[in-house]
Write a sequence for this structure.
């Protein structure tokens, strides 16, 4: 059975990578709907923090903390008094990670270790790390670093031991409106009348920033520590997305790029043996002796040979659903939906 929800008004929440696309939507929704006691934005770019504050993120409960996840000392200071951490900081661009592998490892793997160490030392109670479908059977360095990060955050529960510090992960697919999204590329190409896709057969999992944030909140409320939460999200064909954004444009197929998959997987066949199903998500349980099997007694085991992939998904986005999903993101990519500035 899942844990009961937490009283967010009593929680001190810190998000790493808090000035990114997910971070800004997370902060907006937390301030609007959950009202944490304090909300700390931890990121390394002072200009992005300044721009975020000027854009309306200027609330009495907000704290802007400049720091890098590579700096464990700075994390130790930032996590003092914090009760909940959302670890969203990462190098995410696949070509950049391929060209700069040492940097990707330093941020995505060693930075994750620093978050774990600082959280245990400071007695943070719940830590949720964000992961990606590219961590499943990875073929590029970004996916490999996220796989390592998942392994570390799951096993961090053994390092925490009897201490009331618990770690879990949320693994999901492509996010509409994120900086790595293909939508801005298609919008720019639309001006020239031609859209490029790598392969007309390509499929991807898809969800909105709002859905991603709501998932993260639910996972934090329900986690026992050690789970990898995978939402049941629909698939879409890349060529359908291109035709929705630019219906009057020609589409050129340029071929699969290095490090790119034709389809993505969120739960592999090997993982499915340790995975449970609920109404709206899959819960990958850790294969470790410290895990208590009765943690999710109301969930259902998956059938033999199950695989949750973007090409065998039961749920597919229709053209109308695609238009509804991308419409607000096209209108205000990287802009706050509502002002969270404190009233005078």
């Amino acid at each position: 059975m899942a844990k009961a929800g937490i009283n967010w008004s009593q929680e001190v929440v810190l998000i790493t990578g808090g000035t990114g696309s997910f971070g800004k939507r997370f902060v907006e929704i937390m301030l609007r709907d959950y009202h944490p006691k304090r909300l700390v934005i931890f990121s390394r770019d002072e200009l992005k923090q300044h721009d975020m504050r000027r854009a309306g993120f200027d609330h009495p409960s907000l704290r802007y903390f400049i720091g890098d996840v590579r700096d464990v000392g700075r994390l130790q200071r930032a996590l003092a008094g914090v009760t909940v951490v959302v670890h969203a900081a990462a190098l995410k661009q696949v070509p950049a990670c391929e060209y700069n592998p040492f940097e990707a490892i330093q941020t995505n793997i060693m930075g994750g270790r620093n978050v774990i160490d600082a959280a245990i030392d400071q007695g943070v109670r719940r830590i949720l790390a964000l992961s990606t479908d590219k961590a499943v059977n990875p073929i590029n360095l970004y996916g490999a670093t996220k796989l390592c990060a998942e392994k570390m955050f799951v096993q961090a529960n053994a390092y925490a031991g009897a201490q009331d510090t618990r770690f879990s992960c949320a693994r999901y697919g492509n996010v509409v409106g994120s900086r790595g999204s293909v939508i801005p590329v298609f919008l720019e190409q639309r001006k020239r009348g031609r859209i490029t896709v790598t392969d007309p057969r390509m499929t991807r999992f898809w969800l909105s920033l709002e859905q991603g944030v709501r998932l993260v909140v639910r996972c934090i409320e329900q986690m026992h520590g050690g789970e990898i939460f995978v939402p049941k999200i629909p698939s879409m064909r890349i060529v359908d997305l291109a035709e929705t954004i630019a219906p009057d444009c020609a589409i050129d197929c340029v071929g699969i790029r290095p490090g790119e998959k034709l389809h993505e997987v969120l739960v592999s066949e090997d993982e499915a043996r340790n995975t449970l199903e609920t109404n709206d998500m899959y819960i990958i349980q850790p294969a470790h002796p410290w895990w208590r099997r009765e943690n999710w007694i109301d969930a259902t085991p998956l059938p033999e040979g199950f695989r949750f992939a973007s090409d065998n998904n039961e749920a597919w986005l229709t053209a109308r659903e695609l238009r509804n999903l991308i419409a607000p993101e096209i209108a205000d990519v990287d802009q706050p939906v509502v002002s969270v500035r404190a009233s005078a």
User: Anything to note?
Assistant: The two ends are 44 Å apart (CA to CA). Residues 333-344 have pLDDT under 50 and may be disordered.
